[in-house]
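Researcher: Excuse me, tokens okay?
***
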Amino acid sequence: MESASQYANFCFNIAVLHSRENKIPEAYQAIQKLLQFLRISPSSPQAQLPLSLIDLLVHYNLRTG
């Protein structure tokens, strides 16, 4: 299970890195991989997103308008 956590952390960190470097398509792909891996749909009312992921999604949405 630790490798799953490491993969999720890796995807998250890659998304943050791409976002900060203004590589929006790459950030989007990393976010999508993370959401698919965690089986989370952010639009679901039952979704329990970690605060760090919410922050990443807000940052991404602000960058993309």
